[in-house]
């Protein structure tokens, strides 16, 4: 590995500039040329204008405005219709998130609506072996009664905790809250979410700033973008917004004021088009961030006013018991010199120093986190370290920096009316050990749920409910959840799609697709100002489907007792409307986007925004038409009051980690407590962001390579199915017939005698997958890069058995403190097919 690392840097030193020119036309050429944006536009056209696509008869043209929910980005779209039949999806110019922009997945969304090969026509009941995909039609009345009877039976047996829900809806949306409410009302503490980068960010933000608001960055006003693996032009955040920002950053090639640096071990599109690409070894990004902090502190390149007046734990500090502790400054200066960090990351010390100086000398730099699209969780200490870089520059709640804000002012519903059964069930411990002393900051740990099911003779889960999620495919767990599903007696999928998890279900209660229903969007991922929007159905449901919200409300009433009393609404829209009243009662916000200036430009103070609606009914009408409520203003600064940590300041050393450890160690000795939380560090380093080696158990001699999954903007890797037409936007070194490709550096391939197109097996302790070889100079030697989104066992002929799913062989350890899976550095070996 050491030899390959040296060879890699020799390659970078002599060939990187030519390589990038070959790959993308060079950074300057890319900025000048409209080619990348033209290609994106061509993809959108391509997906809807091929000659064999059925063309609807001529008719009256109309447009319907709505919002895309195929990812958490919440981009505004308009749907062109002929005689009320949707025929094309475009970006909206009257919507502030993505003025006119749209990604390939959003552009191809009509196939999600029309492809009857991937949709359930109505409620269905399994009649064949589990996973066979053999179902029979069943009426809604029969299906709901069957499920209600089972749930009521578990409650009568005193086993409501044997009911588990997996929820893939974006956090804070009305449907997501209804799922949580339903589970709580029946008496189960076992509500699970699919972990994303936003979950890790929220946890890191809570520990450093005390803020529970969403991930928010003022990208458009920054002058230095330091991205730790974020696929800025590959779907990270809100794709339409970030692509627009990228165009803004490059709008004046001769007088650019924004520098973009991409940190990741692979020459992704973002890395190749950035001004500078930094390639550390996978999993060492935390050490790099702290190495940058070392240089900034040593050379005084930090905001001393912020650090001295509004930060805690930067210098040595004293805990509540009077004990002295080393601060962030001393620990970083002692442990993360450029020379030490170079040994960890494989980077040159001079590169670490120059990057730190460039970041430290910028006026409004911002450091971003979340690998790829941000669809999977990150490392908690890594995200904390990156947030500390922003704090060192005082760029917290400042223009061009990290934005701290209160949640959107939606009304809350009354508490559930928990009956005695629910009260007893909710007192039982969670199966996944989340929200315990071992994992005090994590809301749910679905990977731990799999372990709990597999390690016992009889599954502790009797009934599994799955909403807008495909955990059998998307979880980076080496197939553990799919194996756990085989042991669960009864599974219900609420998906409209024949996805991998739904095909293992016993009962299907299909939802509408996003173009057929009303749904809310609560603060699109990464946006710097509050925005709330509603989708508008652009067509009547094509099949016998029902809104998940309506299904849950009906189901609660059929179960009876406390669940029925906890759902007083007649339908989803009533529950939604009740929440929206909070927006009106807040007395602010706009429902119309003024297109004369971007929403991010020249933020006025909050006092400067006057509402543009006359009554609640006026607001509701505008929202229902595919509209929005947003607050394009922010009170910057406010360092005296913005932090809600125990110290009332930004915390370089986390008081909450200290308190959690104190409580845990009061029940066991500290060494055991640290081991339970997955922390290898000792002493004061535990409370501050620090580098922890990945939890790799397998020997390097047996598994000499590292596998890193990555994402593509034109390939869905989450619950949403991939529109079949997008297969044609993939290169033949990504997918050829039924084989996907692994990116391998030619040096690594040469060691194994491999050439372009060879078929190989990649094996980890979790299993093996078959792929073909793509020789790629932009892949770090010794590291194999595999795209996420291939390898479905479900859907139709365009997705089923196309390529390999790297999640199937991820051997994930647990991230310290959070407990989330470490999916970005699985040790593997190559076998010739």
Entry summary:
The protein has 833 residues and is α/β, with parallel strands linked by helices. Among the domains are: 124-193 and 410-564, 3-Layer(aba) Sandwich (Rossmann fold), CATH 3.40.50; 705-832, Barwin-like endoglucanases (Beta Barrel).
Strand order in the largest sheet: 5-4-17-16-15-6-7
CATH fold-level label of one domain: Rossmann fold
CATH architecture of one domain: 3-Layer(aba) Sandwich
Q: Strand share of the residues?
A: 15-25%
Helix/strand/pairing class, anyone? alpha/beta
Q: What is the CATH level 1 assignment of one domain? A: Alpha Beta
Number of E strands: 30
Report the biggest beta sheet as strand number plus sense, adding barrel if it closes. 7 strands, mixed
Work out the radius of gyration.
26 Å
Description:
- This protein has 833 residues and is an alpha/beta fold.
- Among the domains are: 124-193 and 410-564, 3-Layer(aba) Sandwich (Rossmann fold); 705-832, Barwin-like endoglucanases (Beta Barrel), CATH 2.40.40.20.
- Helices cover 31% and strands 16% of the residues.
- It is built from 27 helices and 30 strands.
- The strands form 8 sheets. The protein has a 7-stranded mixed beta sheet, with helices on one face. It has a 7-stranded mixed beta sheet with strand order 23-24-26-25-30-22-27.
- The radius of gyration is 26 Å and the shape is globular.
- The two termini are 24 Å apart.
- The model is unreliable at 1-40 (pLDDT under 50).
